[in-house]
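Most newcomers find our protein records easier to grasp once they have seen one. Sequence and backbone structure share a record, each on its own labelled line. Nothing more is needed to start thinking about how sequence determines fold. As an example, a complete record with its sequence and its structure tokens follows.
=====
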Amino acid sequence: MGAGIRFFLLYEIYSSAQHPQGWSKCIYDDENIHYGLLQIIAANSPEFTQELLGLPSVPTRVSVFQKPPSKGANFDILIEADKEPYYFEIKIWNLLSTDQLDRQTDFLCSNNCNGRYVLFTHAAQQWDASTIASRSRGRSQLVTLADLLRSLNAVKANVPQEITEIVEAYKSIIQHLERRWP
């Protein structure tokens, strides 16, 4: 079963030779795929959530919401770990604008919350960890491919087999991205 998930996620919709600007496109290039993968894994592995959020201990209660209400800040995911909210923005092909980062920072500051930015491809080339941290007034952190892979490696063997298969498939995406966008 895990091979089927991996095949689906890594499936190339079109190659770089077929695109006028030389870009290839895989199934995982859709942000909604990442929303779903992060939601499934965070909800089923508190160790993943601990590592992803940089928590000192494993949370006892984790809830994940897509497109949470955020008063115009428009975050993609909200992960609550022991009722502490962490807002996530995920960018794959679209760039993170300074306007969006500023709006989201204002929301995080006014609500005393923290944010995480998971940036892939072009978006990852635009922002580094120190710029995200300073521009967000210390409210947000960048989640790199290495951070995401480390979080996936924190998933314990006692999760259901379906979750293990999803984790292994997501690791394949991250490894593919590392080769595709060094």
Observations:
- The mean pLDDT is 89.
- Helices lie at 2-10, 31-44, 46-53, 98-110, 121-126, 129-135, 145-153, 161-180.
- DSSP finds eight helices and seven strands in the chain.
- The longest helix spans residues 161-180.
